[in-house]
Design a protein that fits this description.
The protein is an alpha/beta fold. The chain has 17 helices and ten strands. The strands form two sheets. The protein has a six-stranded mixed β-sheet.
C-alpha cells in the first residue's frame, strides 16, 4: 500500500526535507510532467461525447479507417521517449528508474520548444530483442519514437530494427541530435575561417553513438576527410578488434591511413571533435593547422578546457551552457520531430537531418563570429526554421503522408 504523508517514517520525511534544500531536488519533487485534458467535462452531455456513448462512434470509424487515429486522437502529436537507462548523460548504466528524471526532462523540452507532447518510458530490459519487441508493441499509441540513452553498440541495432518495422519516425537523439547540431556549427565555423566542409580534415575522438552519427552526417555533407578513434587508437581497416559498426566506419573514413593515436592524427588537422571523455593535450592542439576548430563536447568535463583550447584554435565549442557555442541537442530534436509529425512522415531521412542542420546554421547568418557559430536554444527563430526545413525535405524525399 502506498504510504500516506502521515505514514511516512519521520526519518524519511527528514531526508526528503534535507534533499529539498538542493534546488534541483526541489524542482523535481513530484516530477516535471502532468497530463491535462484538452476538452471540458462540465456535465452529462460533455461526458457522453468525451466518453460513452459518443466515443464509440469515433472508435468504430477508426476501426474502419485506421488512419483516422491521427485526426481523432492525440497519436499524431505525441512521441515516446524510450530508454533502458544504460547510458544516461555522463552517469553510465544507472538503470531505468534513475533514468526517469532525464526522460521527463526530455519530454518537457519537446513541449517547451516545439509543442510536441511526449511520454517518458523507461524499460526494465536491456536485451536488443526485448527492447525492439516492446517498442513495436507500444508504437500504435505514438506518432514517433525518440530513443534515448541506450548504450552503444546496441543502440545502432535497436534503431535500425525499429526503423525497419515501424512506419513512424524513429530517432536516437544521442546519435542524430548531436550530429545535426555539430554539422550546423561546423558549417558556420568553416565559413568564418574562409573554408568549406570539403576543405576540412577532421579527427573524431569517440566511436560511440554520438561519434558514429557525427562522422556519418559529416561524410554525407561532404567533409574533405575524417578519421575516428576509440580507446585503442585510430580506427582503420587493418585492425582486427573492430565490431561491425566500427568495421563499416573503417571502410568509409581515414583516407589518410592513420594507425596510431588521436594525437598523432591531429597533426595538421583542421578539426577536432571530442565525444569520448578523453583528455587532449596542449601539444596536440598546437600541432593542428592554422584557424583550427575544436569541438570538445564531453560533459561535464570537456576533453580540453575552452580557455586552453582558444590559445590554439580559432573556434571552440563545448557541450556546456556556461561557455559560448554550446552544442545542445535541444536545438535539433524538438523541431525535427515537430516537422516530421506535421507532415506525418513515415521516417526521418538522412536528407531531413542535413536540412535541419542547414536551417540551424542559417539562423546565425551574417552574425557569425568566433563565439557565435550556433544559436542559443532560446532563440525563437530556431524551432520554426528547423520545423519548416524538415517538413519541406520530408515532402521532397517522398516520406510525407500529408
Amino acid at each position: 500500500m502506498a504510504a500516506t504523508p502521515s505514514s511516512v517514517p519521520k526519518s524519511a520525511t527528514a531526508s526528503l526535507d534535507s534533499l529539498d534544500l538542493d534546488p534541483a531536488f526541489a524542482l523535481h519533487r513530484g516530477g516535471k510532467l502532468e497530463v491535462r485534458s484538452t476538452v471540458p467535462v462540465r456535465d452529462a452531455d460533455d461526458l457522453s461525447l468525451a466518453y460513452t456513448p459518443g466515443v464509440a462512434r469515433v472508435c468504430t470509424a477508426i476501426a474502419d479507417s485506421p488512419e483516422l487515429v491521427n485526426d481523432y486522437t492525440w497519436v499524431s502529436n505525441v512521441v515516446a521517449v524510450v530508454s533502458d537507462g544504460t547510458a544516461v548523460l555522463g552517469l553510465g548504466d544507472i538503470g531505468p528508474a534513475a533514468a526517469m528524471p532525464v526522460m521527463e526532462g526530455k519530454a518537457l523540452l519537446f513541449k517547451q520548444f516545439a509543442n510536441v507532447d511526449a511520454v517518458p518510458i523507461c524499460l526494465d530490459c536491456t536485451d536488443v530483442d526485448e527492447l525492439v519487441e516492446t517498442v513495436v508493441r507500444l508504437a500504435p499509441s505514438f506518432g514517433g519514437i525518440n530513443l534515448e540513452d541506450i548504450s552503444a553498440p546496441r543502440c545502432f541495432e535497436v534503431e535500425d530494427r525499429l526503423r525497419e518495422r515501424l512506419s513512424i519516425p524513429v530517432f536516437h537523439d544521442d546519435q542524430h541530435g548531436t550530429a545535426i547540431v555539430v554539422l550546423a556549427a561546423l558549417r558556420n565555423a568553416a565559413r568564418l575561417t574562409g573554408r568549406s566542409l570539403g576543405d576540412l580534415r577532421a579527427v573524431v575522438a569517440g566511436a560511440g553513438a554520438s561519434g558514429v552519427a557525427v562522422t556519418r552526417i559529416l561524410l554525407n555533407a561532404g567533409i574533405g576527410d575524417i578519421a575516428v578513434s576509440d580507446s585503442k587508437g585510430m580506427i582503420h581497416g587493418g585492425r582486427e578488434d573492430l565490431n561491425p559498426v566500427k568495421r563499416a566506419l573503417a571502410a568509409e573514413t581515414n583516407r589518410s591511413g592513420f594507425t596510431g593515436s588521436t594525437e598523432e592524427a591531429l597533426a595538421g588537422a583542421d578539426v577536432f571533435i571530442g565525444l569520448s571523455g578523453s583528455t587532449l593535450t596542449q601539444e596536440a592542439l598546437a600541432s593542428m593547422a592554422g584557424d583550427a576548430i575544436v569541438f570538445a563536447l564531453s560533459n561535464p568535463t570537456p576533453e580540453v578546457h575552452p580557455d586552453a583550447a582558444r590559445e590554439h584554435a580559432r573556434v571552440v565549442a563545448t557541450g556546456r551552457s556556461d561557455f559560448p557555442n554550446q552544442i545542445n541537442n535541444v536545438l535539433a530534436f524538438p523541431g525535427v520531430f515537430r516537422g516530421a509529425l506535421d507532415v506525418r512522415a513515415r521516417t526521418i531521412t538522412e536528407n531531413m537531418k542535413v536540412a535541419a542542420a542547414d536551417a540551424l546554421a542559417a539562423v546565425v547568418g551574417d552574425d557569425v563570429r568566433e563565439d557565435y557559430v550556433i544559436p542559443s536554444p532560446f532563440d525563437e527563430r530556431v524551432a520554426p526554421a528547423v520545423i519548416a526545413a524538415v517538413s519541406a525535405q520530408a515532402r521532397q524525399d517522398g516520406v510525407a503522408r500529408i
